[in-house]
Specification:
Oligomer: single chain
Strand content: 15-25%
Structural class: alpha+beta
Largest sheet: 8 strands, mixed
Helix content: 10-25%
Number of helices: 13
Mean pLDDT: 83
Number of strands: 26
Distance between the termini: 13 Å
Length: 609
């Protein structure tokens, strides 16, 4: 593939094909990543996606920027030219059938030619239309952890009724980390005296994870719930083998191309229980210089012995929904955790649980999972808003699946219908023409980020998927987060919301592990009678009614870390509103093509080979 632009002329090969149903999202790789930093490699390895492997490789072995034209030779393959005017894309794709994503990726190569960018036409305002030394001797990064000098309980309970946080970011002003959390904060003894814990995640570095626990908790029972298979599963077991307190639980993925993408912590303390639902993988890079989201539950006290029934349930049914989610794993070990949850009082919870679990669901079962679950919650627990047809929808994510030949195939049909539901009055006969704004980083967003080009390893949108859906890119908006000081911390957070036309209010807000993909959210099949979901996902939904607001909306907090001059019920959206649409020279970040004509913040180029 060759291209000429402000980012260089290049030729590239890739074996990372994408099927129709799976997203490029943190795709499983058949090999593991050797942890490395500044050229020094440790013995630790963990399974990860191809994109993350490249990102880590480029961080450890950077390719310095050169003014000379850069290219890599590849073996030829058939090409077929396709193009679309108006988006600055003139692409061609291989006419060979893509390799199944459930199969190992081999070193097959293809050539895909991209002509010189043309100046796009003015874009319309679219409407839907990441063991050599014992752990104790390993060097550790130092983050400010919650301490007596910082009133932890004020952080958790005082000025944040939503209990929604972003992760700390190295390299930004300290004021933007004052209300943020690192994993070491979450696992701090100030949050509770740990008895045992469960970690649900996709990409897991066991050795690193153990080091995040305080020394006094590192031998406490730890359950790791994962979705690895075959070689990757063996690698994870090898990682965990040195730790007698660590048990592994494999999430069954019976539908092809699914992943265990849920990111959750269950923390059992002497004082009670805490649930943490977040967006970070359990690897160092995800807690360093990225924008991530966290929902941290209250400390749930234990119910009196012998309490039965619905005791300890919240107005949002969070307790029963969490137990239902855990039971879908069909695991005796997770049944034990479900029993623990049953023994605690979760009545102070003010968020709704929104999950996806692999399966094919019909009838009322559809409403339990994926975007149909969102539709049901919005229908039952929100109220219609005057002129709501002018209230747009925002989707913000770090990976993108195949959306189909055009917007009518999924994005602006079944998915849109779920996102635009408000109360029970949406008319399906005449679907409102509601704007959809999709936030995904541009090449320059990545290039100018704190990490530089390696940040793109966590944004695994591939050229193979992108070239099949050029129509989608005109919905894209840049990443900008001055409100949280995180414009240069690339997002791995995923959020969805319904803002007002002036972006001063939001009808609801969702933080989740789910990227923009049918595998995550589900897609209808069998003539609309069945919802098929491939992956495990989990998020929490914030609705005004659960926070005692009868207005039907939250006000948006002007600055995420501002003082007490704003109403306590103003929601801390972690990025800037309104989002800015891509300009004529902006292109979405694509991980498996080189960028060689403009250096990143570390003076390097991106060469994904």
């Amino acid at each position: 593939m060759s291209q000429e632009s402000e980012h260089g002329r290049w030729t590239v090969s890739s074996s990372d094909e994408s099927t129709e149903e799976n997203d490029d999202a943190e795709k499983p790789s058949t090999s593991s990543l050797s942890l490395s930093g500044h050229g020094k490699t440790s013995g630790s390895q963990y399974p990860c996606s191809e994109a993350r492997k490249v990102g880590q490789k480029r961080k450890a072995s950077p390719v310095k920027f050169s003014d000379k034209s850069f290219s890599t030779e590849i073996s030829p393959a058939k090409i077929q030219r396709t193009s679309q005017e108006g988006l600055g894309w003139c692409l061609s794709s291989s006419d060979e059938e893509p390799e199944s994503e459930g199969q190992p990726k081999h070193a097959q190569k293809e050539a895909v030619k991209v002509e010189k960018f043309s100046a796009p036409k003015k874009q319309p305002s679219h409407r839907c239309e990441d063991n050599e030394l014992p752990v104790s001797q390993k060097p550790e990064k130092h983050y400010k952890v919650a301490s007596e000098g910082q009133d932890t309980w004020d952080l958790l309970n005082g000025g944040n009724p939503f209990r929604f946080f972003v992760t700390k970011v190295k390299g930004i002003k300290s004021k933007y980390n004052s209300g943020a959390l690192h994993i070491k904060d979450i696992l701090s003894p100030l949050f509770g005296t740990l008895v045992s814990s469960a970690q649900f995640n996709y990409c897991i570095d066991v050795e690193w994870l153990i080091r995040q626990y305080p020394q006094e908790f590192r031998k406490k029972p730890l359950l790791i719930v994962h979705g690895e298979k075959r070689e990757s599963k063996a690698e994870l077991h090898a990682q965990a083998h040195p730790y007698e307190n660590v048990r592994l639980c494999q999430a069954k993925l019976d539908i092809a191309f699914g992943t265990h993408h849920t990111k959750m912590m269950l923390l059992l303390y002497e004082e009670g229980l805490r649930v943490v639902i977040h967006t970070s993988n359990l690897i160092d890079a995800d807690w360093d210089q990225k924008t991530q989201g966290i929902w941290l539950s209250p400390l749930y006290p234990r119910l009196p012995h012998g309490t039965t029934g619905s005791a300890g349930e919240s107005v949002t049914n969070f307790k029963s929904d969490l137990i239902l989610y855990l039971m879908t794993y069909n695991s005796p070990t997770l049944k034990e955790w479900a029993d623990i949850i049953q023994e605690h009082d979760l009545s102070e919870t003010r968020v709704y649980l929104l999950g996806s679990t692999p399966g094919r669901y019909q009838g009322n079962q559809k409403e339990k999972w994926g975007h149909f679950r969102l539709r049901k919650l919005l229908k039952e627990y929100t109220s219609p808003i005057p002129a709501q047809e002018s209230w747009p929808v925002i989707g913000q994510f770090s990976s993108i699946g195949s959306m189909g030949a055009d917007q009518s195939k999924w994005l602006c049909s079944e998915f849109q219908e779920s996102l635009i539901t408000l109360g029970g009055t949406v008319k399906t006969l005449a679907k409102p023409d509601i704007p959809i704004h999709l936030i995904y980083p541009t090449v320059d967003n990545v290039r100018q980020s704190l990490e530089g080009y390696p940040a793109g390893g966590s944004l695994p949108y591939s050229i193979q998927t992108a070239q099949k859906q050029l129509w989608l890119h005109s919905y894209f908006h840049k990443w900008s987060a001055e409100t949280s000081g995180r414009s240069h911390a690339m997002p791995h957070i995923k959020t969805y919301m319904r803002p007002s036309p002036d972006f001063q209010k939001i009808a609801w807000f969702l933080v989740t592990s789910a990227n923009l993909s049918k595998a995550a959210w589900g897609a209808l099949e069998k003539n609309g009678t069945q919802l098929m979901i491939r992956s495990y996902e989990l998020g929490v939904l914030f609705l005004p009614s659960a926070f005692g607001l009868d207005t039907g909306y939250f006000h948006v907090k002007k600055k995420m870390f501002s003082g007490s001059n704003e109403p306590v019920t103003s929601f801390p959206v972690p990025y800037d509103l309104p989002p800015e649409q891509y300009g004529s020279k902006d292109r979405p970040w694509i991980w498996n093509i080189p960028y060689t004509k403009a250096p990143d913040t570390h003076g390097n180029m991106w060469v994904p080979s």
